[in-house]
Amino acid sequence: MSTDTPTPPEGTPAEGAASAEEPTAEPALATGTPAAEASVPEAPGSETTVPETTVPETTVPETTEPEVVVAQTGAPEVVVPETGAPESAVPEAAVPETAVPDEPVAQMPQAPYTTWSATQAAPERAPRAVRYRPAGLVLTVVGVLVGLPLVLSLAWPLVVYSVATWHATSYTERVAPKVKLVADGKVEVTVDPGATQIAVKADAWYAWGWQAPTYSVTGSGDTVEIRHKCGRFPFDPSCEAALRVVLPADTELEVRTSNGHISASDLNGNVDVSSSDGRVELARINGDVVAHSGNGRVEVSDIVGSVTVTSSDGAVAITGVSGDVIKGRSGNGSVEATDVHGSATLHSSDGAVTASQIGGDVVAESGNGTVKVSDVRGSVTARSSDGAVVVDKITGDVIAARSGNGRVEVSGVTGSVSAYSSDGEVVVHTVDGEVDAGSGNGRVEAVSIGGSVTAESSDGAVVVEDVAGNVVARSGNGSVTVYGPGVPVALDISTGNGRQTVEAATDPAASITVTIHSSDGRVSYLAPRGPSRLSTVPDVVGLAQDEAVAAVQAAGFLVQVDYEPSDVPQGQVLHTTPGPGTSSIRGTTIMVTVAS
Description:
Elements: H1 134-163, E1 165-174, E2 178-183, E3 187-191, E4 197-206, E5 214-220, E6 223-229, E7 239-247, E8 252-257, E9 262-267, E10 271-275, E11 280-285, E12 289-293, E13 298-303, E14 307-311, E15 316-321, E16 325-330, E17 335-340, E18 344-348, E19 353-358, E20 362-366, E21 371-376, E22 380-384, E23 389-394, E24 398-403, E25 408-413, E26 417-421, E27 426-431, E28 435-439, E29 444-449, E30 453-457, E31 462-467, E32 471-475, E33 480-483, E34 490-495, E35 500-502, E36 513-518, E37 523-526, E38 534-536, H2 545-554, E39 558-564, E40 573-577, E41 583-585, E42 589-595
Parallel strand pairs: 2-6, 2-8, 3-7, 3-9, 8-10, 9-11, 10-12, 11-13, 12-14, 13-15, 14-16, 15-17, 16-18, 17-19, 18-20, 19-21, 20-22, 21-23, 22-24, 23-25, 24-26, 25-27, 26-28, 27-29, 28-30, 29-31, 30-32, 31-33, 32-36, 33-37, 34-36, 35-37, 39-42
Antiparallel strand pairs: 1-4, 4-7, 5-6, 38-41, 40-42
């Protein structure tokens, strides 16, 4: 009986095959025995005995089956367990191609990874969720808050200038002893000595109609007030309301502007001007001056009266003042006063201060800048918290030359000197009066002093030379060297931890005393390094002016003549400063007072 079974058409299930959805018994093994004769137990798990069948050995030719590519279903590979039946070598023709009935298949545990065919692309990963970190979010918000106003601030002026227009209107007003000008822009004042009316030109520049400036004039007593102001928002940069005014010379002037330059000149009355944000220039004013700028430079020159000049954040320059500089002050700029006949008080919070050719007393102070004072006929107080202090050619006393953290240098003083630095060098030379010099942490030097000297340093060297009076020189942690005046002195010298050297003449009974001390350094008293520069003021009281001047100059001094009413004959010398017999440094100035 033939065992060949017809091969069913492709895609048609074999006879007796169960549905794919229903479980079926395990398939019969192809061993050469018909499937009907195979005994397959129905109960799962029971042992099955397969009768041994002798099959002649045949050689099965190798065939190459076409590669079947199975589409990815997402399910793991399923492996059918072996049944333990013996392998049979059956000729290809003897193995019928039958459909394997669906039977419950034991599932293997899912593999830890999935094997993909060479022709199948790996699945795409799901995109990672975007997580916002708090720090990044904060930086983003800050960037927007900062960047947006910056962009608007840069773009807004372009918009304004593209649509803004200029308008100019002329007016004439009655003259008055005092004129007050109020504007939101530049104010320029000039003088016409023969003017019988006030000529006004109101310049307006604005971008929007609702910001158009308004012009108004009010009078009260001896004052005329002219106002030229912008619309709703006076500080809006899209509007400017300027004034150009021509006044009679004998007019007192007051100006207030929120945002503009002020200039005025050749007025015979007092002037009081202020700009919130602009430069101020005043010249040739025959009266007192008050000038202020919130954020600009202030310059005043050729002023007959007194001056008060301030700037919150700009430089201050004062030149040619017949009266006093009551105040010259800047919050964050330099302050300079030159050619002032009266006294001057100058201050800068964070800038240099300079005073020169001052006829009266000077107070010059800076919070964080250099202070320079020279050619002053009065007393001087010069201070800097963190800058150098330089004082030169002072006829009066230097009450204080002091720095918190800078060098202090004083020279050419006819009066006495007090100089000190907390953490810098102090040098004093060519002084007619007494000297008190000290440093917290720097070198101290006093040379060519006509009076007594006290020179001390907490942690630096001390050098004293050519002193006419008594000397006290001390150092906490440095060397001390004193060069004698060329005459014997009463010497007191000691050191806690150093060497002592005495080379100049000493005499315990001498009228000049020298004290030298160092806690931890060398101490020395030495002979003069050159000819003594001291000289004695001659007695010229009662002599004629010409004779007295010649005698003082012959002693090695400069002479300055002063006149004073007196009952003695005109031209006769009344007294000298310093007085006769006083030792002083050659080249210093002696004041000779003559009867007028």
